[in-house]
Specification:
CATH superfamily of the domain at 390-645: Alpha/Beta hydrolase fold, catalytic domain
Low-confidence stretches: 1-19, 79-83
CATH class of the domain at 390-645: Alpha Beta
Number of strands: 35
Mean pLDDT: 88
Largest sheet: 8 strands, mixed
Radius of gyration: 25 Å
Oligomer: single chain
Structural class: alpha+beta
Strand order of the largest sheet: 28-29-31-30-32-33-34-35
Helix content: 10-25%
CATH topology of the domain at 390-645: Rossmann fold
Shape: globular
C-alpha cells in the first residue's frame, strides 16, 4: 500500500515502543478532509466535499490541470433548526453539471419537516439553476433516473398542483440546462415511491401505511397501462422481509432484488407479477446478508454486489471489474481497496485505500495506464498512518449464541495483559452494525491506552432475519445487555482485559445501552458515557408515533418486559455507575428532553452532579455531529471522564504509568 513519511514514522514508533507519537484526541474529532468524491462521466473532473478550518465546502477538482486548487462553489452544513438550509447530496448529470440536493427545515402545520429541492451548477457559466421548484410542496429532490446524453433526469416530487394530494409524489422529467419540466406520472393516493427501469420508464411503485404497517407494491409490464397490486403485507417482525425490484432485466416481467425469505438477505431474480423468486439465489454470503446491487450504465444488468461480512467487500460479476478487483486485492491486501466511483466506461476509478487501522486515502486509478494518483487523505491529521490494530473476534454469549465483535488494541501497549477496556456500542439498535473498518471513535479511545471492543449484539443488522428478531424478543435492555456483559467475560477469560476496569460508551441506542448498563449492572461497569440516548422509553414511543406512525413506533421493544422496566430514567434510584450524559440541544431524532428527564431523575434520586453524573448539553449539535467542535468536545469529555473513573494507566500496570496530557482545546 502506498506509504508516507508519517506512516513510516508511526510504524517505527510502534516497533520501538516509543510513546512520543501519541496522537492528541482532538485530532480524531476533526472533520474528514475529503468526503463523497464523485467522478464525472468523462473522467476529467471530481465533485467532492472538502473541509477547511472546520467548515465543509463542495468543490470541483479538474484532473486535466494537475496541481490546480479545487474550485469551491457551495458551503455544506447540516441544518440545526427551523429556517436553516443545508446541502445534502450531489451527483453529475452529464460532464458539465453538478446537481445538488438542498434541504431546509420548516414548520408545516405544527410539525417540523425537511423540504428538499434540486439545484444545478453549470461549470461553464458558473450559474446555479433551481430545478422544478415551482409547484413543489415538501419533497423535490428524489432523482429516479439520469440521462447523461440529453442532460435530463426523472424527478420524484410532491406537488401543490393538486391540493388533495399535496404530499403524494409525482414523477416529472427535468432538463438541467434550462429547467424545463414535463409531468410523466401523476400522484396516486397509495404510492409513496415510484420505481423506474434502466430506460427511465415507471414500472413499479411502493406504498406504506404508517398505521397498519402494510407495504403495497404495484407493477406494470411496460410503459403502457395501469399499475396493479402484486404485494400488500405487513412485516410485524421489523426484520426487513419485503422484496423490492432494484434492476429490471430485458426479460419480460423479470427483475433483480434482494430478500431474506430463507433467513439471510440474498440476491434473487423475481417474477414481478407474482413477486416470487425464479430459481435459487444468484448470490449469497454464508452467515451474512448481502447489500446493494451495482447495475451497469444501461440499468439492465447486474455488475456486482456490495456486502459486509467482517469487512466491507464487493463481489464483481462483471469479468473485467472482477479482474481489476483481484489485482487490487493482490497489490494492497484483500478488501483494502474499495472502488466507489467511476467514469462512464470504467477506465478511471476512484478508490479508497486503507486497512482497518488506517483512516484511508483517496486515489484515482487509471486502468489503461496503471497509474495511481493520490487525491488526498480522508483525515488530513491522520493521513495513512497505521494506528491501533483491529481484528475480528467471536465469543459465546451466556445462552450459547455466537456473537461477532471487533477488537481494537492500543498500539502503545503491544505486550500488555489485563488492560482497561472501553466498550463502544453502536446505534440502531435493529439494523446498524459495526465492522472491521476504520472507526475514528474506537481509534481515539485505543490511542489513550484502552482496549476497545464493539460487539454486534443480537438485533444488529447484517446477520440475517432471525438475529434481528432475537434482539426484539425480550432483547431491548435485557438480553442485548447480557450480550454486552458476556463480551467482558470472554475478554477477561482470555487475559486481555481486567474485568474490574471496564467502561461503556455509545451514541443514540449506544447511549441508551450505556445508561442501562450504569443502572442495571453498576458492579460490572466502572463508568459509562451516554450520548444522545433514549432514557424514558414510554415518552419516546409517544414522540415516535408522530415520527414513525402508530405501527412503526412499535420497533422499540417486544416481549415480557414493560417499557418502564427497562427505562433508565424510570429507575434512577439505587446504585449506579458514574455516568457522563451528552446530548445535542437541536437533536430531532432523540429530543434533548430525554437527557433532561434522566438528569432530573438522577437528581431526584439524590445523585450529585460532578460526582455521580455529569451533563454536557451541546447547543449546536443535532443527532449527527454537523460541527467539528462538538465531536471534539464529545471525545475529550469522554477522555476526562475515563481518566477520572477508569484511568488507562495505573501503578500496578506492567507497562508502567505514562503521563498523558489532555488537550485543553
Amino acid at each position: 500500500m502506498p506509504a508516507t513519511a508519517a506512516s513510516a514514522q508511526s510504524d517505527k514508533a510502534v516497533a520501538t515502543g516509543e510513546k512520543s507519537d501519541r496522537i492528541a484526541t482532538e485530532k480524531f474529532g476533526r472533520r474528514p478532509f475529503m468526503q463523497q468524491p464523485r467522478l464525472s462521466p468523462d473522467g476529467t473532473k471530481i465533485a467532492v466535499r472538502m473541509g477547511n478550518k472546520g467548515i465543509d465546502y463542495l468543490g470541483i477538482i479538474d484532473l486535466t490541470k494537475p496541481g490546480s486548487k479545487p474550485e469551491f462553489f457551495a458551503r455544506v452544513e447540516e441544518f440545526k433548526d427551523v429556517g436553516d438550509r443545508t446541502l445534502a447530496q450531489w451527483r453529475w448529470i452529464g460532464d458539465r453539471t453538478v446537481v445538488m440536493t438542498y434541504a431546509s427545515r420548516e414548520n408545516i402545520y405544527g410539525t417540523r419537516a425537511d423540504l428538499t429541492r434540486l439545484v444545478a451548477y453549470d461549470l461553464e457559466s458558473k450559474k446555479l439553476i433551481p430545478l422544478a421548484w415551482e409547484d413543489t410542496s415538501v419533497s423535490g429532490a428524489n432523482i429516479l433516473h439520469v440521462n447523461h446524453d440529453s442532460e435530463t433526469l426523472l424527478l420524484q416530487r410532491t406537488s401543490f398542483e393538486n391540493d388533495q394530494r399535496a404530499f403524494m409524489p409525482e414523477v416529472v422529467s427535468v432538463n438541467v440546462r434550462d429547467g424545463a419540466v414535463k409531468v410523466i406520472m401523476r400522484p396516486n393516493p397509495v404510492v409513496g415511491n415510484w420505481i423506474v427501469d434502466g430506460k427511465g420508464v415507471v414500472r413499479a411503485s411502493v406504498g406504506y401505511d404508517r398505521d397498519n404497517g402494510k407495504t403495497r407494491i404495484m407493477y406494470r409490464s411496460g410503459d403502457k397501462g395501469y399499475l396493479e397490486t402484486v404485494y400488500n403485507e405487513a412485516d410485524r417482525t421489523f426484520s426487513l422481509s419485503e422484496a423490492y425490484p432494484q434492476i429490471f432485466l430485458d426479460e419480460p416481467d423479470m427483475a433483480l432484488g434482494t430478500n431474506n425469505k430463507d433467513g439471510f438477505n440474498k440476491v434473487y431474480k423475481f417474477n414481478m407479477k407474482t413477486m416470487e423468486p425464479v430459481g435459487g439465489p444468484i448470490f449469497e454470503v454464508s452467515g451474512y446478508d448481502v447489500g446493494d446491487l451495482i447495475e451497469n450504465q444501461d440499468g439492465n444488468r447486474l455488475m456486482g454486489i456490495n456486502y459486509v461480512s467482517d469487512r466491507p467487500r464487493t463481489k464483481w460479476l462483471d469479468k473485467r471489474m472482477a479482474t481489476i478487483q483481484k489485482f487490487l486485492d493482490e497489490e494492497f491486501g484483500e478488501a483494502n481497496a474499495q472502488i466507489f466511483s467511476s467514469n462512464r466506461d470504467y477506465t478511471k476509478l476512484l478508490i479508497n485505500l486503507g486497512g482497518p487501522d488506517q483512516a484511508g486515502s483517496i486515489y484515482l486509478y487509471d486502468v489503461q495506464s496503471g497509474d495511481f494518483q493520490l487525491l488526498g487523505h480522508r483525515y488530513a491529521a491522520l493521513r495513512d498512518m497505521k494506528l491501533n490494530p483491529m481484528k475480528t473476534i467471536r465469543y459465546k454469549a451466556s445462552d450459547g449464541e455466537t456473537i461477532e465483535a471487533f477488537l481494537t488494541m492500543p498500539r502503545h501497549r503491544p505486550n500488555a495483559k489485563k488492560l482497561p477496556m472501553v466498550m463502544i456500542t453502536h446505534g440502531g439498535p435493529f439494523g446498524p452494525r459495526d465492522m472491521l473498518s476504520f472507526d475514528v471513535w474506537a481509534q481515539a479511545i485505543a490511542e489513550m491506552g484502552y482496549v476497545v471492543v464493539q460487539p454486534n449484539y443480537r438485533g444488529s443488522g447484517g446477520y440475517g432475519r432471525e438475529w434481528i428478531k432475537k434482539g426484539r424478543d425480550n432483547g431491548f435492555g435485557l438480553r442485548m445487555q447480557d450480550d454486552l456483559n458476556d463480551a467482558v467475560d470472554h475478554l477477561a477469560n482470555e487475559g486481555i482485559v481486567d474485568p474490574k476496569r471496564v467502561c461503556m460508551m455509545g451514541w443514540s441506542y449506544g447511549g441508551y445501552a450505556s445508561a442501562r448498563a450504569a443502572q442495571r449492572d453498576p458492579d460490572r461497569w466502572r463508568c459509562t458515557i451516554a450520548g444522545a440516548g433514549v432514557y424514558d422509553l414510554p415518552e419516546m414511543r409517544k414522540y415516535d408515533v408522530s415520527y414513525l406512525g402508530s405501527f412503526g413506533s412499535n420497533y422499540l421493544a417486544k416481549g415480557a418486559a414493560e417499557l418502564t422496566d427497562v427505562s433508565p430514567a424510570r429507575n434512577a434510584k439505587g446504585k449506579w455507575s458514574p455516568i457522563l450524559i451528552v446530548h445535542g440541544a437541536r437533536d430531532q431524532r432523540v429530543p434533548v428532553a430525554q437527557a433532561k428527564l434522566l438528569v432530573n431523575a438522577l437528581k431526584a434520586a439524590g445523585k450529585k452532579q460532578g460526582v455521580d453524573f455529569e451533563y454536557v448539553e451541546q447547543k449546536e449539535n443535532t443527532h449527527n455531529f454537523p460541527f467539528e467542535a462538538d465531536q471534539i468536545e464529545w471525545l475529550e469529555s469522554a477522555e476526562k471522564w475515563l481518566a477520572k473513573h477508569n484511568p488507562a494507566y495505573v501503578e500496578s500496570d506492567a507497562d508502567k504509568p505514562v503521563p498523558v496530557a489532555i488537550s485543553s482545546k
